[in-house]
């Protein structure tokens, strides 16, 4: 589903060059929940930006569904990015719009008719457990509910990959668990491939099938979660 082949990302800085991602190769299967864990500065955010085509690797290639997204740009890249969706640590909701309007936003951009949008939004609201909250504004929701809106919006156009950027880092432990359970449920029901980056071991242990551990731009270990994080 996703393949990173010998990816290196070098940033030019005031003091010279900084290698944020250093010769990383990974492959992620369709339907898998794959975690990338590491401390701050390890290169996780850079990996996410490479995966969604927002940045190009300095060398190496990124393939999503056999399409080399690191080699295309413009309209072709925008089309390829429709398959890739994202959720964020701070949710990135539109604050002047209701839950329904936030979720309808990507459908509107995709050109869906009002009637179809209404139906699809209702389905998504039910899917993420926000039934009855469609008319609320983000400011009236808890953190967990805001992330549920983020998830519904991310799923609106039936993506094949969901990228989660520290998606539970702003939430308390109980809410974190409920959001992880929702992601697990969506993965099972829709067969959606999920890639998540986090600095929290608990998140990886709870839902990931496989994990890559990053340190200073390098992947230092990969494998099944149970093998990588064995209990002593
Ligand atoms: P993480 O998400 O694991 O904290 P990042 O990918 O944000 O790691 O950063 C990896 C390294 O790359 C850090 O040293 C960071 O300062 C550097 N870096 C990230 N983005 C840029 C950028 N746009 N320009 C220069 N350096 C960057
Ligand atoms: P947190 O995720 O830390 O709880 P908030 O939910 O308050 O933070 O805000 C999430 C994001 O929305 C932040 O990036 C913030 O800057 C932005 N934001 C907060 N309030 C508004 C607002 N009234 N209008 C537009 N953007 C807002």
UniProtKB/TrEMBL annotation:
<feature type="domain" description="ABC transporter">
    <location>
        <begin position="2"/>
        <end position="232"/>
    </location>
</feature>
<keyword id="KW-0547">Nucleotide-binding</keyword>
<dbReference type="GO" id="GO:0005524">
    <property type="term" value="F:ATP binding"/>
</dbReference>
<protein>
    <submittedName>
        <fullName>Methionine ABC transporter ATP-binding protein</fullName>
    </submittedName>
</protein>
<keyword id="KW-0067">ATP-binding</keyword>
<keyword id="KW-1278">Translocase</keyword>
<keyword id="KW-0813">Transport</keyword>
<dbReference type="GO" id="GO:0016887">
    <property type="term" value="F:ATP hydrolysis activity"/>
</dbReference>
<dbReference type="GO" id="GO:0006865">
    <property type="term" value="P:amino acid transport"/>
</dbReference>
<keyword id="KW-0472">Membrane</keyword>
<keyword id="KW-0029">Amino-acid transport</keyword>
<keyword id="KW-1003">Cell membrane</keyword>
């Amino acid at each position: 589903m996703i393949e990173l082949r010998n990816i290196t990302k070098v940033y030019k800085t005031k003091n010279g060059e900084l290698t944020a991602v250093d010769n990383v190769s990974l492959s992620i299967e369709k339907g898998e929940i794959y975690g990338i864990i590491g401390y701050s500065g390890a290169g996780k955010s850079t990996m996410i930006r490479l995966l969604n085509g927002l940045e190009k690797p300095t060398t190496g290639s990124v393939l999503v569904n056999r399409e080399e997204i690191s080699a295309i740009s413009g309209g072709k890249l925008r089309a390829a990015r429709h398959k890739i969706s994202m959720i964020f640590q701070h949710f990135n909701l539109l604050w002047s719009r209701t839950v329904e309007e936030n979720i309808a936003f990507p459908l509107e951009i995709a050109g869906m008719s009002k009637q179809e949008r209404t139906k699809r939004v209702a389905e998504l609201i039910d899917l993420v457990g926000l039934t009855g909250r469609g008319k609320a504004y983000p400011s009236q929701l808890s953190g967990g509910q805001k992330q549920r809106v983020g998830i519904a919006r991310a799923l609106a156009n039936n993506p094949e990959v969901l990228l989660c950027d520290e998606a539970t880092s702003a939430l308390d432990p109980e809410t974190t668990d409920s959001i992880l359970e929702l992601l697990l449920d969506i993965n099972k029901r829709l067969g959606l491939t999920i890639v998540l980056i986090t600095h929290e071991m608990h998140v990886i242990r709870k839902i990931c099938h496989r994990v890559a551990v990053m340190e200073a731009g390098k992947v230092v270990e990969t494998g099944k979660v149970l093998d990588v994080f064995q209990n002593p």
